[in-house]
Amino acid sequence: MKKDVLKIITEYEVKILSIINKIKTLQDVNNFNENENKIHDLINECLEKIYALIAKFVRKYYPDIEFNEENVASLTWNEDGINLEERITSYIETSILEMIVLLKEDKDIAQIKRLLEFQIVRILDTEAFLVMNKILENKLRKVSKYFQILSDNCCDGCENISEQGILPIHKLEKTPPYHPSCQCVIIYYTEYPKNI
């Protein structure tokens, strides 16, 4: 499933980067509101596709689990009570404000665009894996006895977590993402796997 999630993310990254690449001048930045809304809509659309993919997975492999579809944008998981829509809006607005400040300081526009691209892609990656991991936790934790956190191309911290192997479900304290752009995923097991 992670492969399918990454495919969806890549599809939307391309669309978002094509919008950012149209920025050429300070005037383009000042008139960026419409494009900001397009980026926001693309991120939401991406997260909705990932949500639908996960719903399909859960229904196929865990038919006894009730899965009532929800509006992805209204989902709230963090202790701060801010929902996905509010968090994404805040991240995008902050990124664009930072870009405007840098442009007014006569910074190189190409460098600023790369920074904006990096920030927006990081938002998309992080929120996509948050949606995936939180929904799976919400649906599968209660029917699982064991779990494993898997990661590839990861930082040292995530590698240490991944190396812990298969653990009893009661030891699962916090689900990924553990940091921006974290691509760790949790695998849930109803029984201890024999063929690993």
Highlighted features:
mainly alpha; 2 domains; 3-stranded antiparallel β-sheet; 6 helices; 3 strands; 58% helix
Strand order of the largest sheet: 2-1-3
Strand content: 5-15%
Helix content: 55-70%
Parts with pLDDT < 50 across at least 5 consecutive residues = none
For the record, the count of structural domains works out to: 2
Seen as an oligomer or otherwise, the chain set is single chain
> Care to count the β-strands?
3
Radius of gyration: 19 Å
Shape: elongated
- Termini Cα gap: 18 Å
Average pLDDT over all residues: 83
The topology string of helices and strands comes to HHHHHEHEE
User: Could you give a short account of the major beta sheet?
Assistant: 3 strands, antiparallel
- Structure class: mainly alpha
Count of alpha and pi helical runs: 6
Q: Can you summarize this structure?
A:
With about 200 residues, the chain is mainly alpha-helical. About 60% of the residues lie in helices and about 5% in strands.
Describe the structure in your own words:
This protein is mainly α. The chain has 2 domains: 2-141; 144-196, no CATH class. Helices cover 58% and strands 6% of the residues. The protein has helices spanning 2-20, 26-30, 33-61, 84-104, 109-140, 156-162; strands at residues 146-150, 167-168, 185-189. Strands 2-1-3 form a 3-stranded antiparallel beta sheet.
